[in-house]
Structure to design on (780 residues):
């Protein structure tokens, strides 16, 4: 009878409602006040999150009198120390994005959401904001009491100080973001004189509000309901992926700790149901329910559980980084037996190779020649044929130089007009010239004759570029 | 309408499909509701700010509280462009066309900004990029990007042509010359050797076209020795030109008139100067050779 009804339930739509009773859905109606505990993963997290200091500090770095790293959108250049990347080389950006995406996929497939737990700006900023909250309002029980307390001078004071510091950090975040795109010192000058351009104000306000709202008020709600990564991680992980997991075979059945061993009976597992793992969780999940959407794999519950295990004299690792296979007692495969990771690594290497090739073959000058199309050629009074070309020279160095123009191929006895003297190629931008080629009409053998132009810097013969194009003429 | 769902015991809207699939009345998250409300408020503000109701009442439409119009926006954008061009325009206002041409920055500015001016005023006859246009009689207006100029291809010549317009003149010779004479001349000219027949000088062609047949810029007479033809370059075409002339009043004559752009009043002085430079830069412009002129000019005085 019992079996029959259970069978009926599975596969039926109402099964969802049965499950629902066990779901702990965090709708954000209750603020999560997570306890902060020292430990191994806490330390790692502190270090990895502090990488974001680079975000605040690097823009102030100078190199040869200019900002060392600058995404100069206004002038369409990317400066990286001595290197200047112009839009012509932007294809490398797509490879870089591919590289980052694949790294994310590969790391996720090996060790789950490492990005979320240790590096993500949402995690980092939220962690700092909560740390500030902890310093001002006290530990989680004190904060809960404060939240429940009626509004009074003390509560207003504490809340005001907290929000003020949050806003200050948010403002600094907005400023720090902006100065990756414009000169940092110049930006501060304009900011202090309130003379930023409109786009500057909009960016600043957007990032100020974004930081304050996302890291201060929404916190883990962002991870749960806004971030797509949390939702698609399921396709990146599999049973070989290691993730913070509760060893249910060892822990269950859980139960309160009893002073005397025989009191609780021999059947009890190692989990003493102390809820420390839940209390320290920044997203408020119970890791003992298994892998779930809300878990950003920050490892803080591992620290909490280990400290409890130490106290009750049981071995550490009731909650530990483990794969599903390991938990279920299946043989754990080696890394090289994980073909998906190998594919990811292959793509990463390809993208990396492309970027290295691109960076080492940037060159210092490029040439593009556009033949005039209307008219294709002009017949001159002495019967010769003249073609007009637009030269586009991009000088990627940081110095102006002059280029000499020569041509190979083309028509016998042709003359290049308009480049008798070397032409000025201005630095870090494109320069265009008009150049004519005149050839005697009787020497033209075909309508289209291939011609290759070459420009060469007068300062350095190694700075040169070629371009193949055509010399148009009438039907011979 | 509120019912309890039979399995989950949650309140529902009362709608049930497929026996037990119900619509629960759970509230969406608060941030989501705030977002929805904010979006709705944005729409209201947007609709009030801009002219958003295309409904005519009392012969007028709702103009929006912000006073925005597309024309105003266009004018603001135009001011921006004018400000950018202003520094160049201010400089070239008081410069001669030759000086503009000699200035790299300004001539690049003209090369880039002259296209619209040329397209609006010149291209109808001379074609885009000066490639010329054709009608039944052949070339309707001269090609501007070659090196053959009726009235001279130096920058000042081009400028003069635009300012004052041009009108060449060639008499109809159908009554002056016999058919045989016209045929002989046409053949000689078609082979680019007008002097191969004594008729060229005897009949007075050289008065306008020069002893050597190379034409005179002063009168706009064509160079008959080169390979570029203002009108039809076939023997028959040349014979027709001799027979009926150019702008001669004969009903079959070629009509070739370049209007006076100064008098037409459509173009400013600065625009005419820009056009002269723009046309010069098609590639056919002839250099003034200032260095030579400078050394040549005082020479006769020294001799005296």
């Amino acid at each position: 009878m019992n079996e029959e009804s259970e069978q009926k339930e599975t596969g039926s739509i109402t099964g969802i409602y049965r499950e629902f009773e066990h779901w702990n859905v965090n709708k954000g109606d209750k603020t999560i006040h997570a306890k902060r505990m020292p430990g191994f993963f806490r330390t790692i997290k502190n270090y990895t999150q502090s990488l974001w200091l680079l975000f605040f500090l690097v823009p102030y770095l100078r190199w040869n009198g200019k900002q060392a790293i600058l995404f100069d959108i206004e002038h369409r250049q990317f400066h990286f120390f001595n290197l200047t990347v112009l839009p012509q080389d932007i294809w490398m950006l797509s490879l870089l994005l591919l590289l980052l995406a694949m790294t994310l996929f590969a790391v996720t497939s090996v060790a789950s959401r490492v990005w979320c737990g240790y590096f993500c700006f949402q995690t980092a900023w939220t962690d700092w904001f909560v740390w500030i909250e902890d310093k001002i309002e006290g530990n989680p029980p004190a904060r809960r009491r404060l939240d429940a307390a009626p509004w009074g001078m003390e509560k207003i004071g504490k809340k005001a100080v907290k929000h003020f510091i949050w806003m200050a950090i948010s403002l600094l975040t907005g400023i720090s973001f902006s100065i990756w795109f414009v000169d940092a010192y110049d930006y501060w000058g304009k900011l202090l004189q309130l003379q930023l351009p409109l786009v500057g104000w909009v960016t600043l306000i957007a990032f100020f509000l974004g930081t304050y709202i996302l890291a201060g008020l929404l916190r883990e709600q962002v991870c749960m309901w806004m971030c797509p990564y949390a939702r698609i991680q399921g396709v990146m992980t599999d049973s070989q992926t290691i993730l913070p997991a509760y060893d249910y075979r060892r822990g269950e059945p859980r139960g309160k700790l009893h002073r005397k061993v025989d009191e609780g009976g021999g059947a009890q597992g190692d989990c003493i149901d102390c809820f420390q793992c839940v209390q320290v969780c920044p997203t408020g999940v119970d890791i003992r329910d298994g892998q779930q959407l809300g878990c950003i794999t920050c490892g803080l519950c591992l620290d909490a559980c280990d400290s409890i295990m130490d106290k009750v004299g049981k071995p550490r690792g009731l909650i530990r980084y483990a794969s599903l296979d390991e938990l279920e007692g299946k043989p754990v495969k080696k890394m090289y037996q994980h073909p998906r990771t190998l594919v990811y690594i292959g793509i990463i290497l390809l993208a990396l190779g492309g970027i290295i090739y691109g960076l080492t073959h940037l060159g210092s000058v490029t040439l593009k020649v556009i033949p005039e199309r209307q008219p294709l050629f002009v017949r001159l009074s002495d019967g010769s044929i003249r073609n007009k070309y637009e030269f586009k020279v991009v000088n990627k160095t940081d110095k102006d130089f002059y280029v000499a123009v020569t041509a190979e191929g083309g028509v016998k006895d042709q003359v290049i007009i308009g480049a008798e003297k070397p032409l000025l190629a201005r630095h870090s931008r494109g320069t265009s010239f008009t150049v004519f080629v005149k050839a005697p009409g009787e020497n033209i053998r075909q309508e289209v004759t291939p011609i290759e132009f070459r420009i060469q810097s007068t300062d350095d013969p190694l700075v040169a570029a070629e371009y193949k194009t055509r010399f148009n003429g009438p039907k011979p | 309408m509120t019912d309890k769902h039979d399995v989950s015991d949650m309140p529902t809207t009362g709608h049930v499909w497929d026996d037990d699939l119900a619509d629960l009345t759970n509230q969406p998250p608060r941030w989501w509701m705030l977002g929805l409300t904010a979006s709705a408020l944005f729409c209201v503000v947007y609709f009030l700010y801009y002219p958003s109701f295309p409904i005519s009442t009392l012969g007028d439409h709702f103009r929006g509280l912000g006073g925005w119009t597309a024309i105003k926006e266009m004018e603001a954008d135009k001011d921006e462009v004018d400000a950018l061009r202003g520094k160049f325009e201010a400089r070239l206002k008081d410069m001669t066309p030759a000086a503009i041409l000699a200035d790299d920055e300004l001539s690049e500015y003209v090369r880039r900004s002259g296209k619209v001016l040329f397209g609006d005023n010149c291209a109808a006859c001379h074609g885009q990029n000066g490639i010329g246009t054709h009608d039944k009689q052949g070339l309707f207006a001269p090609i501007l990007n070659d090196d053959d100029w009726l009235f001279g291809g130096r920058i000042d010549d081009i400028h003069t042509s635009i300012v004052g317009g041009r009108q060449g003149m060639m008499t109809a010779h159908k009554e002056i010359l016999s058919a045989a004479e016209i045929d002989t001349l046409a053949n000689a000219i078609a082979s680019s050797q007008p002097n191969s027949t004594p008729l060229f000088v005897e009949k007075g062609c050289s008065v306008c076209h020069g002893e050597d047949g190379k034409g005179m810029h002063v009168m706009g007479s064509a160079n008959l020795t080169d390979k570029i033809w203002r009108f039809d370059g076939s023997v028959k075409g040349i014979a027709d030109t001799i027979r009926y002339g150019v702008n001669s009043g004969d009903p079959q004559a070629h009509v070739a008139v370049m209007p006076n752009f100064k008098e037409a009043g459509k173009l400013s002085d600065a625009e005419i100067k820009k056009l002269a430079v723009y046309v010069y830069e098609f590639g056919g412009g002839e250099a003034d050779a200032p260095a030579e002129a400078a050394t040549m000019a005082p020479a006769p005085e020294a001799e005296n």
Residues 3-49 of chain B form one domain.
